């Protein structure tokens, strides 16, 4: 029984921010603001907020120290065994903590509000000039802008940890392999400014959906027996191949990892027992003892209750964060596979309280990240809600609504929610979702099953019943959910961000990057000699094909480096395909395999082509000589031409001409990606997602024919550029659906829109909004996400950040606390058009 002792009452966040807490859904919530359970949730939420006021977490070296100690002791052993033993050492020795009043145990770091990092994934290379971002030799240099860490830890890192990993971390192996065997790809990565490589952000293999439900139903001990059976069938004296010898080590590593997770759960149980022994409040003492009982049971044994299932899930999530990096590991179709556990609860209010405390637990720690591309983000772990079942029928259920309530009450950045919509989504559920989005925060995002499922079956060759059980991960990338079908995917869905306008720019200069004067692309000729737009597009196509080929090489080398040096032991344990085959996830152990890249600046690229065709070939209002001179001069002295370019047809205005150019260019990029394959047996696919990369990638571009100046940011994801006239939400939604072929974007789409709260405040406004969403989905739109906040409020938050610690906005494919974001990202969000009906 949950302790309902008195907790300090606080003003709920929605009252403090005067949020629109009204509507049919809010009238049907299980927990009211004065309910004792909800008072406790809000009290703990308030306790967690101060860590965000200066945007910093404590940086701990515990994991780095333990991993380094382990690796010093295991030199010469199989890479999978080394990683498993390092994981085991962490789980046996890492600190354990618990926030007052929390009912769930464990963290993916060395304690609440801490950030740990694994030195495997430090962005180090043998030669810092390898780094296209100019990353310094000490990767923690400048980290004090995001993290608080002691001078003693800085000294130990510099003298003890950094020297050991300098030549043997992932980036060292990667750059050595690339420079030695793929010098052309290294040259383009270093000098081309055509894409940013995701793995450089300092984390491990992310963007997965693991098979957690099998562990909840069976327990780790039963799964260990299954792994042991597979191992026993491999006779080292008579192996079928060299792969069988490697499989033996992979299975042994899984067994070590299994024991390590059980050990960590037991340590948490003992910690709770120790707290209970010192607790003077009888209610809290009983609660701590119940928490200890559960941690002694799960995840070693099957979960029988809702609280046991949630705790088991958290232990597995924590293991992944510690072992593989705490970033974008989706929970999948949580409302579907967790429903049987939820239905075992006899007290609906207590079950809702436990769910909301579970949500709070997700926000206690974050993954280590130094990249500007994810400014202000959390772990970005996804929960998928609603959608169709294996027969194509709607499967919205009671837990679907309760997840919406949990997010509305907790309203922090993790978990990241997506709602799957389709033609038969109940109106009541769609309107409930929009009422929650209206609170602000940019969640949930809205996905179109009727576009995403055909994309998975068509481009990725996923069987229909598997595709219907897709889940989206990270920002909005799509893979199968093994919790529903037992069929897993390694989609490598976040493998870098393509600078979409860059090939167009390279075609201006015969493949020379104008920002450094280095030849990085193929020679495609002087554009002054291009007599038709098709001639120019042929040159652009060659530059696109070259950029994409270089990107494919880079990502295939990453697969090789991971496989040879850093097998993903925890992923292998928690994925059914790898667990069955004994083949590492990076080597093709999952049922489905592909590599997904992301493209940024779609609007800018489409608008560039629209302007070139309009002004040079259709109206002949200018010449190549004049345009190239204007671009080289960054428009200085050519403002008249810049205004002509700005006035040219723009994507986002419901203009078929501009939208067609945007679609034509995207299809060219998709064609290029789909022509390449991975060493895991899959193909390359593409998505249109930016995170905050539209800012650094803009710095890698000179002036462009859409009217941009040198270094200015790009449009985020699939949003219109800042030069597009604001013709309202119907125009932007229609343009998006027309310009993007949703059947070719299995790796996802993000489409950011911003409304003023007054535009969606009344029941009539809500109905118009629901109609807009339905029409967008019917037109083939893939995804849309709404931030409900006015420009005035954003400006006020910039001026008075302490008063806006609850203001959460949508950045790219993730939500963030606005006042944690860098000024450039804040400004880009303010610059988004403010829509109204």
Report on this structure.
One of its GO terms (molecular function) is lyase activity. This is Formate acetyltransferase. Residues 708-730 are annotated as: Disordered. It comes from Leptolinea tardivitalis. The modification Glycine radical is found at residue 813. This protein is α/β, with parallel strands linked by helices. It folds into three domains: 1-30 and 326-486 and 751-836, no CATH class; 77-106 and 212-325, no CATH class; 496-567 and 593-750, no CATH class. Helices cover 48% and strands 9% of the residues. The chain has 34 helices and 23 strands. The strands form eight sheets. Strands 7-8-9-20-19-23 form a six-stranded mixed beta sheet. The chain has a four-stranded mixed beta sheet with strand order 4-13-17-18. Strands 2-1-3 form a three-stranded parallel beta sheet, with no helix packed on it. Strand 14 and strand 15 (518-519) form a beta hairpin. Helix 10 runs antiparallel to helix 11. The radius of gyration is 26 Å and the shape is globular. The two termini are 48 Å apart. Residues 131-137 have low confidence and may be disordered.
Number of strands: 23
Taking the alpha carbons of the first and last residues, their distance comes to: 48 Å
What is the strand content?
Answer: 5-15%
Spans where pLDDT lies below 50 across 5 or more residues? 131-137
Please identify the structural class as seen in this structure.
alpha/beta
Q: What's the overall average pLDDT, rounded? A: 93
Helix content: 40-55%
From the alpha-carbon coordinates, what is the Rg to the nearest angstrom?
26 Å
The gross shape turns out to be globular
Number of helices: 34
Strand sequence of the main sheet, in spatial order? 7-8-9-20-19-23
Main sheet: strands, sense, barrel: 6 strands, mixed
**Total tally of structural domains:** 3
Region (Disordered): 708-730
Domain Glycine radical: 716-837
InterPro entries: Gly_radical, GRE, PFL_dom
Protein name: Formate acetyltransferase
């Amino acid at each position: 029984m949950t302790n309902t002792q008195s907790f300090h009452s606080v003003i709920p966040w929605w009252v403090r921010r005067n949020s629109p807490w009204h509507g049919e859904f809010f009238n049907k919530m299980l927990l009211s603001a004065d309910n004792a359970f909800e008072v406790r949730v809000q009290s703990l939420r308030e306790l967690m907020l101060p860590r965000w006021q200066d945007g910093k977490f404590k940086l701990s070296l515990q994991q780095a120290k333990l991993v380094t100690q382990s690796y010093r002791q295991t030199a010469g052993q199989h890479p999978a065994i080394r990683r498993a033993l390092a994981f085991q050492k962490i789980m046996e020795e890492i600190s354990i903590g618990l926030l007052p009043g929390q009912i769930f145990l464990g963290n993916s770091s060395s304690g609440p509000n801490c950030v740990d990092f694994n030195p495997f994934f430090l962005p180090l290379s043998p030669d810092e000039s390898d780094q296209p971002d100019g990353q310094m030799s000490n990767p923690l240099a400048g980290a004090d802008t995001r993290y608080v860490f002691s001078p003693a830890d800085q000294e130990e890192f510099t003298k003890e940890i950094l020297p050991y990993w300098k030549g043997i971390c992932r980036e060292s192996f990667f750059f050595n392999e690339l420079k030695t065997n793929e010098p052309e790809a290294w040259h383009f990565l270093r000098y081309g400014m055509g894409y940013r490589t995701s793995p450089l952000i300092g984390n491990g293999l992310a963007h997965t959906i693991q098979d957690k439900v099998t562990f909840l139903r069976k327990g780790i001990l039963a799964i260990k027996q299954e792994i042991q059976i597979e191992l026993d069938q491999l006779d080292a004296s008579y192996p079928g191949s060299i792969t069988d010898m490697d499989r033996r080590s992979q299975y042994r590593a899984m067994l070590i990892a299994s024991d390590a997770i059980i050990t960590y759960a037991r340590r948490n149980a003992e910690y709770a027992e120790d707290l209970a022994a010192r607790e003077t409040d009888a209610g809290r003492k009983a609660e701590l003892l119940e928490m200890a009982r559960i941690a002694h049971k799960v995840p070693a044994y099957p979960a029988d209750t809702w609280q046991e299932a949630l705790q088991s899930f958290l232990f597995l999530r924590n293991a992944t964060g510690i072992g593989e990096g705490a970033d974008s590991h989706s929970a999948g179709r949580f409302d579907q596979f967790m429903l049987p556990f939820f239905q075992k609860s006899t007290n609906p209010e207590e079950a809702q309280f436990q769910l909301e405390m579970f949500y709070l637990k997700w926000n206690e720690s974050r993954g280590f990240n130094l990249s500007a591309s994810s400014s202000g983000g959390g772990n970005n772990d996804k929960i998928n809600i609603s959608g169709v079942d294996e027969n194509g029928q709607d499967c919205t259920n009671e837990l679907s609504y309760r997840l919406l309530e949990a997010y509305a009450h907790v309203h922090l950045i993790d978990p990241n929610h997506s709602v799957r919509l389709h033609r038969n989504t109940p109106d009541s559920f769609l309107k409930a979702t929009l009422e929650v989005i209206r609170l602000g925060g940019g969640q949930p995002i809205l996905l179109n099953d009727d576009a995403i499922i055909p994309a998975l079956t068509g481009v990725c060759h996923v069987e229909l019943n598997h595709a219907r059980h897709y889940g989206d991960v990270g920002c909005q990338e799509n893979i199968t959910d093994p919790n529903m079908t037992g069929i897993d995917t390694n989609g490598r869905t976040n493998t870098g961000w393509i600078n979409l306008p860059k090939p167009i720019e390279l075609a201006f200069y015969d493949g020379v990057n104008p920002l450094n004067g280095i030849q990085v692309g193929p020679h495609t000729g002087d554009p002054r000699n291009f007599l038709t737009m098709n001639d120019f597009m042929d040159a652009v196509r060659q530059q696109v094909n070259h950029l994409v080929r270089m990107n494919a090489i880079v990502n295939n080398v990453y697969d090789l480096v991971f496989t040879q040096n850093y097998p993903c032991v925890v992923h292998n344990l928690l994925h059914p395909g790898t667990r069955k085959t004994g083949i590492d996830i990076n080597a093709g152990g999952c049922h489905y395999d592909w590599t997904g890249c992301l493209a940024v600046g779609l609007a800018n690229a489409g608008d560039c082509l629209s302007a070139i065709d309009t002004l040079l070939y259709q109206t002949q209002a200018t010449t190549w000589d004049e345009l190239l001179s204007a671009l080289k001069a960054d428009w200085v002295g050519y403002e008249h031409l810049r205004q002509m370019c700005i006035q040219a047809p723009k994507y986002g205005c419901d203009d078929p001409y501009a939208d067609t150019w945007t679609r034509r260019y995207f299809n060219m990029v998709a064609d290029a990606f789909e022509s390449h394959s991975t060493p895991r047996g899959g193909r390359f696919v593409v998505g249109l997602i930016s995170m905050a990369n539209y800012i650094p990638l803009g710095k890698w571009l000179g002036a462009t024919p859409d009217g941009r100046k040198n270094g200015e940011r790009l449009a985020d994801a699939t949003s219109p550029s800042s030069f597009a006239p604001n013709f309202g939400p119907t125009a932007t939604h229609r343009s998006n659906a027309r310009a993007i072929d949703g059947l070719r974007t299995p790796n996802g789409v993000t489409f950011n829109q911003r409304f003023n709260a007054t535009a969606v405040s009344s029941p009539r406004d809500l109905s118009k909004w629901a109609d807009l969403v339905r029409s967008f989905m019917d037109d083939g739109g893939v995804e849309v996400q709404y931030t409900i906040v006015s420009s005035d409020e954003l400006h006020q938050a910039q001026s008075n950040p302490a008063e806006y610690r609850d203001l959460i906005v949508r950045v790219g494919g993730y939500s963030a606390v606005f006042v944690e974001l860098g000024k450039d990202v804040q400004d880009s969000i303010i610059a988004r058009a403010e829509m109204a009906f």
